[in-house]
Every structure is written in structure tokens, then in C-alpha cells.
Write a structure and sequence with these properties.
Elements (H helix, E strand, L loop, with lengths): L1 E3 L3 E4 L2 E4 L19 E9 L3 E8 L5 E8 L12 H13 L8 E6 L3 E7 L6 H8 L4 H20 L2 E2 L8 E3 L9 E3 L6 E2 L4 E3 L11 H4 L12
Parallel strand pairs: 1-13
Antiparallel strand pairs: 2-3, 4-5, 5-6, 6-8, 7-8, 9-12, 10-11
Length: about 220
């Protein structure tokens, strides 16, 4: 049985990052994203990514541009490795579901890979819950069903999200009676391969499954924790 752990391999005691582009990966557009999109206000940020609102010049349609800072050398810990970025893009290119965020396009420059994503402007479920303090039975039932529909779709494609939490569940429009749910942020998502044992320690401490903490083989069931 093969064992997959992280994006690194060892040789004579040294660690090397597997950063070469996958031969099956469709290349990212090597053009300035600003030539095709008007970049607007910042919507959010993480350790190595910034999300900004943008408008496609040719259509006038609005999207979210996720600028992911690339790791510049294998020895660096600043930025995201090529392997991790390609994995996220590969997964997003496979999915099409009304409860999962949609990838529109991908650009690359010297420092960043830019994902052009569906604009989800209703805010995080986390903030929605904090403001309301409690949900009606109808709201709770709808949210749970939508989340499970999205997760079930991912699992039918053998994709585990591995970072499901209220901050990664967004609302399309929070001002309607029953907001529509979108699962976002596939930075930790993996395709679970038959016969390949996958282990890793990652995720958000408050939400990780016990098998992640215990460094045990991981599967789709980790999302249900």
C-alpha cells in the first residue's frame, strides 16, 4: 500500500519540495489579471492569500479574486507550494454544485496565483450565527441540508474538504429568509485514492477530526466530525 503524507520527499537526509507542475495540470494563464479584470476592494485575507472583489471587463460580471502568494523556494515557509496550489485548482475544476463555490479562471504572475471565483457576498455563516444568536427550526434544517448536500457531492467525487467550519461556509445573500449556502476554501482538500494511505496534521484545531490529531489514516469520514 502506498503512503501519502505531505508535499515533500527525502533523499539522503535532505528534504525537497515536490513543486514541479503536474503533467496533467492545465497551465495557468500567464497574463496580467488586471488586463482582464478591474480589481476592487478587499473582501478577506488569510496567512498567504488575499481575496478581492473584481469585475470582468468584457462582461461586467463580478467575481472574487483570490491572490495566493507562491512559495519562492523549497526552503522557504512563506507562501504556498506549487503542489498545494495545483491541488486546490484541480479540485475546484472538477466540482460543479449549487452548494460549492465555482472556479471561473486562473492567472499567474511572478509572485501570485490568482483564482477567479464565484462572488459570494452574504458573509460567513459564523458571523450570521453570531448576529442572530439562535436559528429557527426552518433555518437550521435548511442550513444543515444544504451543507450535507454539498459535502455529499464532494464525497461522491472522492474529495474530502478537511476544513469544514462556519468560517468556510458562506451565504450568497444573508438578507433573504433562508440564505443559500456555499462551501468555500479548498486549500486543504484532497482527493482520496483507493489503496493510498493518506496522513497529515492540518486544519483548524477546534474542528479537526480525532484521526487527524492522532496522525491516523484519513478518509472522507473526517469531514463528518
Amino acid at each position: 500500500m502506498a503512503v501519502l503524507t505531505t508535499g515533500f520527499f527525502s533523499f539522503q537526509g535532505c528534504m525537497f519540495e515536490a513543486s514541479m507542475r503536474s503533467p496533467n495540470m492545465e497551465p495557468f494563464k500567464q497574463q496580467k489579471v488586471e488586463d482582464f479584470y478591474d480589481i476592487g476592494e478587499e473582501l478577506g485575507s488569510g496567512q498567504f492569500a488575499i481575496v478581492k472583489k473584481c469585475r470582468e471587463k468584457s462582461t461586467g460580471l463580478e467575481y472574487a479574486a483570490k491572490f495566493i502568494k507562491k512559495r519562492q523556494s523549497p526552503a522557504s515557509r512563506r507562501g504556498v507550494s506549487r503542489e498545494e496550489i495545483e491541488r486546490e485548482v484541480s479540485i475546484l475544476r472538477q466540482v460543479l454544485h449549487h452548494n460549492v463555490i465555482t472556479l471561473h479562471d486562473v492567472y499567474e504572475n511572478r509572485t501570485d496565483v490568482v483564482l477567479i471565483l464565484e462572488l459570494v457576498s452574504g458573509g460567513e455563516l459564523f458571523d450570521f450565527l453570531a448576529q442572530k444568536e439562535s436559528l429557527s427550526e426552518e433555518e437550521a434544517t435548511s442550513f444543515i441540508k444544504q451543507i450535507l448536500d454539498g459535502v455529499n457531492y464532494l464525497h461522491t467525487k472522492k474529495i474530502a474538504h478537511f476544513d469544514l467550519k462556519p468560517e468556510n461556509i458562506m451565504l450568497l445573500d444573508k438578507n433573504i429568509p433562508i440564505p443559500h449556502i456555499k462551501l468555500i476554501d479548498f486549500g486543504l482538500a484532497h482527493e482520496i485514492e483507493d489503496g493510498v494511505e493518506f496522513k497529515n496534521i492540518f486544519g483548524t484545531p477546534e474542528f479537526v477530526a480525532p484521526e487527524i490529531v492522532n496522525y491516523e489514516p484519513l478518509g472522507l469520514e473526517a469531514d463528518m466530525w
